[in-house]
Here is the input.
Amino acid sequence: MSEPNIFPAIKPVGINGMLVQFSDKLQEPSNRAALSFCASIRQKNWPCVEEISATLASAYLRFDIQKASHEELIQDLQALLNTQNWYEAPLPQGRRHLEIPCVFGGEHGPQLEEAATVAKLSTQDAIKELTTVRTRVLAVGFAPGQPYLGELDEHWNIPRLTALTRQVPKGALIVAIKQLIIFTAPSPTGWRHIGQCAFDCFRPDQENPFAFRPGDEVSLRDISSKDLSCIKATDRTGNGGAVISPIL
Amino acid sequence: MSGLRILSCGPGLSIQDMGRPGYLEQGLSISGVADQLALHEAGTLLGHPKPQAVIEMAGIGGAFKAETDMTIALTGAIMKVSINGAQVAWNATYFLPRGADLKIGGVQSGVYGYLSFGAGISTKPFLGSRSIHLRGGIGQALQAGELIPLGRNNANEAGIGLDAEERFSGGVIRIIPSVQSALFPQREHKRFSETIFIRSLRGNRMGVAFDFKGDGFAAEGQLSILSEIIAVGDIQMTGDGRPFVLLPECQTTGGYPRIGTVIPADLPKLAQTAPGKEVSFQMITLPEALDLQKSFEDDIKRLSERVSPLIRDPSTMNDLLSYQLISGAISANSTAEET
Here is the structure.
């Protein structure tokens, strides 16, 4: 049953879903394609489409099978795919840049040194790189509002740990396979825990409970653990001292 | 505010409705009842045009007190139930006058039982749904002492029974190809379709594990699969190659390969298969699944044909005691005394 995939590939998901896969690997162009393609479908406002979701390298649609057949939707998606080279498409409008304060290392990031060693960097250089790079929210998933940030340079292609860390706190910054995650809630993880933010990814009591949207960009600002306590003591918004600005 | 007081309860009680679709891109899965058919059955029994929020009970119920007059419906997994000490039948509606005691014990067959209310549940919705999503941090499991607030008691008929479809003993579960089915070699598909699986004890609203004899099922390039969108009903093969079928509170994306997806029409049966019961998976085509979906939806529309007054249908009663109670059952807008 195995056949080589040719991308983009259109495949059904369940009985009322359709997936447009741009790659089976995570690369900037395929994530760009997924984001732009989803934005374009949103603009089209097809009456059959009930939900649109960009994942790392795919666009997912849930549709009303009473309003369109699988064949019709595949045709429409194929026609939209043919309109341009999505791997080089401009990123959608309305994205934001979030500069988020983070404590690196020490008790707030007990695996920073280890992660830096695996990435063949000094701890200082690792912090410097992670606070200089501007990452993209490649996808939101696993837990509500939880961002997958990337991609980092190749030397950050560090594997997951074989043994799970039993629990890292909410707001923990973790790293593996060229990506960073800020945790929504306390959770076990096989990624390395390198820092701590006061940023709240999911805010059920706010009008917009999801702090990140796929395509947003994130930078981290190095702060002391005293700064973190200060932010935690005073912040009521969930932003944890982040500076949020639109990307023009 | 008045409603139903929880005096004591098992650990697996939560408020659920049809769930919260539309937030996959924000990392939030749909949640909602594990057995949607049971929700439709409750809606039919209570005369609701649309299914309302209910209390889902995994494995065991609890002891409750009515702090107001109310009509309730009991659907889904069959549980032992009594009203004011008298045992009554499942798959039916009852009038509970203020002060009545309701006791719901352990499941006799199935996994998820449902306690529904004529007046509905009036907790505050979040993003259009009252469903609790434990993993997502939306709400919590119900606790002893809590009061379940109900809506205004619109007159619902009590003493109505429903001839529910049996779906608690496993059997053949139909599946369609998933995005990653093609990664499994043909011989693995064949072996999968010929294997008898036993519902494991490991299971919750995120998903259920199945045990079997033999080697685990593996996909090609299993370790380098890019994390991809999950559909409820996906059968993922975890590291040891054992199937884990994903339910409404699953994660939104995942990197384990999925050999197929259980069709929505068979999800109630899958979710209600009790630990120790056997299932097998039969691969069908997408067009076949779409036809089955149509009949499933038609069956739901025709649920009212399965309803009848309890008194005329002794076969749905557990014993004489229940008959005694039901003979005195009244509707919420009736002035008759309770038995």
Observations:
- The CA atoms of residues 21 and 278 of chain B lie 31 Å apart.
- The helical segments of chain B are 36-46, 186-194, 267-272, 286-301, 320-327.
- The longest helix of chain B spans residues 286-301.
- Confidence is low (pLDDT under 50) at residues 312-339 of chain B.
